[in-house]
Amino acid sequence: MEIGILKRSGGRWKLNPQQLLEKSKKYMWLPFTQMSDYERDPLIIESGEGVVVKDIYGKEYLDGNSSLWLNVHGHRKAEIDEAIRKQLESIAHSTLLGAANVPSVLLAERLINIAPEGLTRVFYSDSGATAVEIAVKMAYQYWQNKGRSEKTKFVTLSNGYHGDTVGTMSVGSIDLYHKVYTSLLFDALVVPFPAVYRHPSGDAQTVCNESLQSLRELFEKRHSEIAGLTLEPLIQGAGGMNTMPRGYLKGVESLCREFDILLIADEVATGFGRTGKMFAVEHEGVRPDLMTVAKGLTGGYLPVAATLATEQVYDAFYGEYEEMKTFFHGHSYTGNQLGCAAALANLDIFERERLVEQASDKAKLLSELLHDLGELDHVGDIRQCGLICGIELVQDQKTKVPFPFKWRVGYRSTLKMRELGMLTRPLGDVIVFMPPLAATEEQLGEMVRILKEGIVWATTFQYGATTN
Ligand SMILES: *Cc1c(COP(=O)(O)O)cnc(C)c1O
């Protein structure tokens, strides 16, 4: 077979695609993947260009979830490739423990310049989970350092997701992922997310008021023990692409201020233009005390993440060493130079191409394109925030009854989409659609066409009595 890996590796690996597939089944253990599914439908990506990725057989796929919500400008963006090559001429990595490095300093300044007002300090790490883990530890130690040692608890929203480490699972609240670990996690106080779709009133304002009221009641009772509140602003990602009613986020901020609780905005998924603003909190003029960024920070290239803090938080850790206020936390690859150089190039392109504005325009186009899907029999709800979309499939539109779990309708529809030339992954029966910001109108149209075909196929499939 004269394709893909054979050609480009220059024979270096002396493999054909079939051998590589066998090795992947034999040696790999993939994240968030039931490996028996992978064995049945394996996939190995070899290359990418723009919003298209290609597998080892040469089949092309539109990148319908931005390589898991990361990619911004498409793959092999010349300026980012070049920035990384250029950085390699100086150094690939040196430690940030006790020393800064050139691109990390420049990137910190850039981040503070674009961040919501009040955030003044950048603490680097290497993934969304570590960025949130750090925010949680900072919020905790902030109160310890200030002599308020009773403020140790965290509040989070139902269905929240902040990563897969033990600390971030503790402030997460998705049964499917977290339940099995319950006794391993610290207890967080969970308040209801203002979900409109299945609320009896179906009215956004009512849902918003109710949810804020239950948060107020919790704060009134327990604010003296609460260190911080974590949330994903405007839209929850892994919890099912759940959108917040307008005004909820601002309401949470006001309550946090009133009761002296740190607001931790997890912008790992929503940051960098995804929602039509640089950061989602900007839509409601919210100023978090701590804010985490990761996924889009390097344009989807390299693992760099950051936790941004206010000067007030930073000050609580500042002093002489023997005062024991230091933040003792760090990761080997914190502030990696190649990653920071990629992030700087990423932000240059944002500015030059006025990408945030563009994303906002594309979001409008996308809602028109998605509108048609609402007419399909089994599409229950279409939730969209900028270029983040979740399409919830249900067995019955009227009663909103879900499909039987065993049918795996979400998974099957995305497998069909793969066959049709687009990659994405479902969250249960919610189909995630999250195209790169750089996707053109034409590409968006083609992706939505595939979405529709995949959904129709899987929702009208005769699952039959045996699988019922
Ligand atoms: C993806 C995600 C994380 C975790 O990021 P990783 O880089 O996968 O560790 C945290 N918070 C939110 C909101 C996310 O979407």
TrEMBL record:
The keyword Transferase applies. Its cofactor is pyridoxal 5'-phosphate. It is an enzyme of class 2 (transferase). Substrate binds at residues 161, 295, 330, 425. InterPro entries: Aminotrans_3 (IPR005814), Aminotrans_3_PPA_site (IPR049704), BioA (IPR005815), PyrdxlP-dep_Trfase (IPR015424), PyrdxlP-dep_Trfase_major (IPR015421), PyrdxlP-dep_Trfase_small (IPR015422). SUPFAM superfamilies: PLP-dependent transferases. It comes from the Bacteria. Pathway: Cofactor biosynthesis; biotin biosynthesis; 7,8-diaminononanoate from 8-amino-7-oxononanoate (SAM route): step 1/1. It catalyses: (8S)-8-amino-7-oxononanoate + S-adenosyl-L-methionine = S-adenosyl-4-methylsulfanyl-2-oxobutanoate + (7R,8S)-7,8-diammoniononanoate. It is found in: Cytoplasm. Keywords: Aminotransferase, Biotin biosynthesis, Cytoplasm, Pyridoxal phosphate, S-adenosyl-L-methionine, Transferase. PROSITE patterns: AA_TRANSFER_CLASS_3. Catalyzes the transfer of the alpha-amino group from S-adenosyl-L-methionine (SAM) to 7-keto-8-aminopelargonic acid (KAPA) to form 7,8-diaminopelargonic acid (DAPA). It is the only aminotransferase known to utilize SAM as an amino donor. Homodimer. Belongs to the class-III pyridoxal-phosphate-dependent aminotransferase family. BioA subfamily. This is Adenosylmethionine-8-amino-7-oxononanoate aminotransferase. It comes from Sporosarcina soli. The gene is bioA.
